[in-house]
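Students often ask why inverse folding is considered easier than folding. One informal answer: many sequences map to the same fold, so there is more than one right answer. In these notes we will look at a single instance of the problem. The structure comes first.
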C-alpha cells in the first residue's frame, strides 16, 4: 500500500476501520502481476472483438492475441474500437497504465456512438489522467446522453493504488435501468435512470473504445505540465477483454426486439445490482477518494440533475462548486474548470462488421479534467 495512505490511516482511523480499508481495497495489498478477472466472465481475443481505430503502427498485439498494448510517442497516440455496436452491455478489461512521467497523458476506456450520431451522441467514460512524478494518478467518469455535451455529468477521483504497477479490471455496465462504473468488483458510481432524464440517459447503440493520446493542453495542472517525449514510448496494456451485450446495427432507428431476452439476462447478472456489501464499499471509496462531483456543483447546476441522489455524508465534504471543502487527505489542492471541447481521435461511420482501416483524426467532445 502507498506510504501516504498508511501514514494517513495510522493517524486518522481506528484499527477496525483499517481492517475495513484492507477488506474493501485488497488490490492495494496484492502481489505484483496479479490479474483481476472481475465477476469471472469469459474473455475474448483481440480479433474476436476489436479492430484498430487509428495509428495501428502503435498497437502491439500479443502472440496469443489475448492482450494488446497502445503506444503514445511523438508521432501519434493510438486506439482501438469494438468491431460491433451493442444495445446495452457490460464492457471490461484489465488495464495497466504507463509508468514514470505521465503528465499530459490521457488513457480512455469508454463507450460512444459519436461518429454514428454526430449531433446527439451518447457516451460513458472512464478517463485516466496522468500526473507529474510522485503524484498519484487521477481519473474521472462521465456520462453524456443524446448529445448533452453541455451537461456533462463528471466525477473525479484519486487512485488508492498505483495503476502502473499491476493490472486492475475496469468495467462499465450499461443497462436500460442503470449504469455502474467498477474497478475490480468495487462499484465507484451508479446512475439510475430517472424519468425526468429523458434523452440524457444513453439509449442508442454504442461501441467500446480504448485510446491513449496527448492532452497536454488540459490534462495536468490545467495544461502547465505537458507530455515529455524523452520518456517515450508511453504504453498502456489491456487484457482479460470482455464484451457482453446484444449486438445491433447502429443504423437501425427502431430498437431491436431481438435484444429483449439478452437485456433481461444482462439485468439478472450479479454485476447489474449493487449488493449491500458493495454499496458499503462504494460509500467508503466515494467519501475518501472522490474530489469533484457534478451533483454537488450548485454553480453549474443550481438544481441538481434528476438522477442525482444527494448523500448527506458526501454533501458535507463539498463546496457549492462541487470541489472538496478541504485539501485532499493525501496532499494537493484542487480546482474545477468549466467543461470545454477537447479533441480525441474518432472514426468515420461504418456498418457493423466493417473493420476500420487507416487513421482517423476527427474530434469528439468530452469534459474538462480538473488537472491539478
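Output (designed amino acids):
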Amino acid at each position: 500500500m502507498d506510504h501516504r495512505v498508511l501514514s494517513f490511516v495510522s493517524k486518522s482511523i481506528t484499527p477496525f476501520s483499517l481492517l475495513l480499508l484492507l477488506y474493501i481495497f485488497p488490490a492495494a495489498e496484492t502481489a505484483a502481476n496479479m490479474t483481476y478477472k472481475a465477476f469471472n466472465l469469459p474473455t475474448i481475443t483481440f480479433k474476436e472483438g476489436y479492430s484498430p481505430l487509428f495509428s495501428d503502427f502503435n498497437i502491439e498485439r500479443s502472440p496469443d492475441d489475448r492482450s494488446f498494448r497502445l503506444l503514445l510517442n511523438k508521432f501519434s497516440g493510438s486506439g482501438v474500437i469494438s468491431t460491433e455496436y451493442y444495445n446495452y452491455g457490460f464492457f471490461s478489461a484489465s488495464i495497466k497504465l504507463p509508468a514514470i512521467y505521465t503528465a499530459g497523458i490521457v488513457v480512455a476506456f469508454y463507450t460512444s456512438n459519436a461518429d454514428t450520431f454526430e449531433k446527439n451522441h451518447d457516451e460513458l467514460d472512464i478517463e485516466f489522467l496522468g500526473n507529474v512524478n510522485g503524484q498519484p494518478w487521477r481519473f474521472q467518469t462521465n456520462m453524456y446522453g443524446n448529445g448533452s455535451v453541455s451537461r456533462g455529468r463528471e466525477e473525479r477521483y484519486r487512485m488508492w493504488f498505483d495503476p502502473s504497477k499491476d493490472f486492475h479490471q475496469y468495467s462499465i455496465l450499461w443497462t436500460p435501468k442503470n449504469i455502474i462504473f467498477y474497478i475490480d468488483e468495487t462499484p465507484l458510481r451508479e446512475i439510475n435512470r430517472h424519468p425526468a432524464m429523458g434523452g440524457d440517459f444513453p439509449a442508442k447503440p454504442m461501441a467500446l473504445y480504448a485510446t491513449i493520446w496527448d492532452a497536454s493542453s488540459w490534462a495536468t495542472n490545467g495544461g502547465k505540465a505537458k507530455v515529455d517525449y524523452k520518456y517515450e514510448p508511453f504504453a498502456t496494456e489491456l487484457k482479460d477483454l470482455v464484451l457482453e451485450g446484444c449486438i445491433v446495427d447502429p443504423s437501425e432507428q427502431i430498437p431491436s426486439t431481438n435484444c429483449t431476452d439478452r437485456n433481461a439476462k444482462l439485468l439478472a447478472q450479479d454485476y447489474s445490482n449493487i449488493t449491500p456489501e458493495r454499496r458499503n464499499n462504494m460509500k467508503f471509496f466515494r467519501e475518501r477518494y472522490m474530489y469533484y462531483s457534478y451533483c454537488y456543483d450548485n454553480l453549474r447546476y443550481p438544481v441538481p440533475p434528476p438522477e442525482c441522489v444527494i448523500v448527506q455524508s458526501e454533501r458535507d465534504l463539498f463546496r457549492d462548486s462541487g470541489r472538496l471543502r478541504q485539501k485532499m487527505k493525501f496532499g494537493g489542492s484542487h480546482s474545477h474548470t468549466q467543461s470545454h471541447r477537447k479533441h480525441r481521435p474518432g472514426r468515420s461511420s461504418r456498418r457493423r462488421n466493417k473493420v476500420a482501416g487507416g487513421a482517423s483524426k476527427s474530434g469528439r467532445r468530452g469534459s474538462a479534467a480538473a488537472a491539478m
